[in-house]
């Protein structure tokens, strides 16, 4: 079991010196308050403790989930009504099984099923079109109508879309109830469910509305990955490769050595474990080091922009998230080279890695640089008219600005353009 400490909490302590005690024998009135010139500071904590996420990676755990369900859900939720939330595709595969297993464990559980009826470019069903405020509103209405209390738990069952929606849902109901992820895709197990960034999409861009809220438990069953297409496996492997490029050349070597046999559950379980082990330390404290923000976001500034631009109304994105992030990482490498932060061999290695994995590496010809730049302005790291990005100096290492002691670099527009143009030139 792997644990990530997500938040350091402060406990509110009352300053008793601010109260003036009444004289002996005097009629007791409301206590007089000493006037202080200093500002008053309130420290808010959540449950007066650190919030932690325990990640359980176990092949076949869903088939015998009745033996684990009570330890996975918080004890306070055992007597409350809980909800398994899934999409229509995952529901056909695991919905009733998980529901029955949890009820067999003596838990009070209902199921809520959201649609997954849109098709991506490959013709596969997708829930991405439903990752929206309207779906979130429907979920809230459905659960409030069915009954809930502050000790209820939301259990997401599915991939990244369901995980993100349920995370935002749990953070919103009663200002925060318990959250458990049972994640069934490579993207969920390697990235979305492990993180505590919860969000929905907006017409302006990807993941623009959301909250920071960790799950108390994340359950990863590598057996569920066998139902995925090669494309959707690679979609999640892209995020695994991201952590290898930014943190571990040894991990990258392992991923690429076995990628030809990526349907082997032993291989997938090992990759998921390695990714969680590298990702978990980056979830501790963004204030301690911006590495914890820049590392998980590597390639995401450009990636989110091209992903959103690939959307077709009524069908969703032509590029899956991991595919778009692969493109974003290649462009990021071009930018690092232009800024003289890495050798050209590092740029070439990026293209070699993703082409070997079967992931796209070029900005699609259907997009203009102006369109990509416009979408970049909605990125949360777009500060003072410039995107802030982390860049790689060599495989396994990100650039540290020694003067400012930070990993985030503000990128000028001309350098952004030059990086994207270099990517497009390789395409031609």
TrEMBL record:
This is 2-deoxy-scyllo-inosose synthase. Gene3D superfamilies: 3.40.50.1970, Dehydroquinate synthase-like - alpha domain. Its cofactor is Co(2+); NAD(+). SUPFAM superfamilies: Dehydroquinate synthase-like. InterPro entries: Dehydroquinate_synthase, DHQS/DOIS_N, DHQS_C. Keywords: Metal-binding, NAD. GO terms for molecular function: 3-dehydroquinate synthase activity; metal ion binding. Residues 126-233 form the 3-dehydroquinate synthase N-terminal domain. Residues 236-381 form the 3-dehydroquinate synthase C-terminal domain.
